[in-house]
Amino acid sequence: MGSPLHAPVFLVVCIFIQSSACGQGLGTEPFGKSYGAAEVRKPSQEMGTRFLLFKDENDRRGCQLRVQSPETLQECGFNTSQPLVMIIHGWSGSESATVGENSDSDSQVDGLLETWIWKLVGVLKSRPVNVGMVEWISLAYQHYAIAVRNTRVVGQEVAALLLWLEESVKFPPSEVHLIGYSLGAHVSGFAGSSMDGKHKIGRITGLDPAGPMFEGSSPSDRLSPDDAIFVDAIHTFTREHMGLSVGIKQPIAHYDFYPNGGTFQPGCHFLELYRHIAEHGLNAITQTIKCAHERSVHLFIDSLRHSSLQSTGFQCSDMDSFSQGLCLSCKKGRCNTLGYDIRKDWPGKSKKLFLITRAQAPFRVYHYQFKIQFINQIEKPVEPTFSMSLLGTKEEVKKIPITLGEGIASNKTYSLLITLDKDIGELIIIKFKWENSAVWANVWNTVQVIMPWGMTSHYSGLILKTIWVKAGETQQRMTFCPENIDDLQLHPTQEKVFVKCEVNSKRLKQRSR
After folding, report:
1. How far, in whole angstroms, is CA 232 from its chain's centroid?
2. Burial class of residue 209, CB neighbours in 10 A (0-12, 13-18, 19+)
3. How would you label 475-491 residue by residue, b for 16+ Cβ within 10 Å and e otherwise?
């Protein structure tokens, strides 16, 4: 139970069980082909796709918009001067309850739709937009393979709604933003591809779009950049098991964000089960399993709720390069804001953006690249443990552990990514320490006995010459030099202070006068 791999394994197994129960495999059979009524429940007034509009942030019943019934637009308070944001849920729900005008109570709705929907409705209503939802529970509450096939049907119905809005009240599709979670992301894609070329949807956001039966498929069979004027996606659960991942791994948007690499998310380890039990009771196991998949939703909600703490993603080829701090550039559109307030420019081609987040909201962290130049004056490579303390104009962060991942040999510069949970302001002082260990203390004492410092001080120890720093969020570059240039050697348990090199040069000039 201790491994985070149990979460994706459990979900993938559930998918297989659901699919095999009705004789459906998870192969790559094209789901644009026709299928029988026994396999998919066709939409109808009683059971199918419904479009709900929410009047305020506390509205959990919704008002149903009916295509070809223009009076429902006025009844539901649709404002043609404001954009329309439609939320599309994924493969979830229960047939035991309904949502909308026929609901008997809010508790029925809570049992039907996951709580994140109401959180998203609430924060969206704080903006000047119409907020709606595509409710397709009766078609989503199916064996997985059937629900996948239904995504195209629902997407076509969404397109029919948008075309009717343009025809009846001159509301342009370019003012529409579809936000789809999991299978709902692909519903959004099918809605976009069902529109004709002259009536393109303004924006589609895919929140961890579903992977099984979509990974590796052609753009026409999943969400793709062609489905809207602007498409962004957040990938949070792409860890593979048996060749499958809950969330799709491949880029499918203009901007594809991969928080924490996209494979898994902090705070979603199975060891967090006890915290989830305290919060969710008997539903704790379900909450733990879907934690990483649903994190995409909460990152998006966070971007609305904490608009002053927007998370930034940086274009990079892979997470390994990003972890070395090599990708913190914003030149030529190489970075963008994750979430609702993303910069909606045309990147030319799809961009993969990476970032680190906290385990809970607000999720933003501050990214720094540290490039550290070492000179090893010991004959053999050394693998010490270091720590850094950072003093800024606002805050100080102490004892950040530093792991280089390889031994220090001869003269080499190492690059690494450091993230901070809080804004320390402009960095002004770095304290760099070689942490003590019993092994290294013994080795160093032996070296001191064999080579007395008075005779060989010039040739022993590590020399730490320069530290280059780049702040990802501000794009500021800084160079730090040793405060005491007369003593450059670093020994075990010793701490060196580094200041900005221009400050150090001023001190040298004053000393020479």
Report:
1. 11
2. buried
3. eeebebbbbeeeeebbb
Of 252, 278, 294, the one marking the end of a domain is 294
> Are 277 and 394 found together in one domain?
no
Judging by beta carbons within 10 Å of its beta carbon (0-12, 13-18, 19+), is residue 128 exposed, middle or buried?
A: exposed
Instruction: Establish whether 182 is a catalytic residue.
Output: yes
CATH for 248: 3.40.50.1820
Is 256 catalytic? The answer is no
Enumerate residue ranges in the chain where pLDDT < 70.
Answer: 1-47, 92-112, 270-289, 347, 377-381, 436-460, 503-513
Note if 318 is an active site residue. no
Q: Which of 293, 302, 303, 367 is catalytic?
A: 293
Neighbours of 35 (CB within 10 A): 12
Residue keyed to tokens 């990152």: 299
Q: Which residues contact 169 (CB under 8 A, 6 or more apart)?
A: 70, 73, 78, 80
Q: Tell me, what's the pLDDT at 52?
A: 96
> In this structure, are residues 107 and 79 in contact, taking their beta carbons and an 8 Å threshold?
no
Per-residue model confidence (pLDDT) at position 280: 59
**Predicted pLDDT at 279:** 66
Domain that holds residue 271: 6-24+47-294
Catalytic choice (19, 92, 138, 182)? 182
7, two tokens: 């979460």
Distance of alpha carbon 513 from alpha carbon 508, whole angstroms: 9
Identify the pLDDT of residue 282.
54
- The predicted-structure confidence for 412-446, as pLDDT tens digits, reads as follows 889 999 999 999 999 999 999 998 654 544 554 44
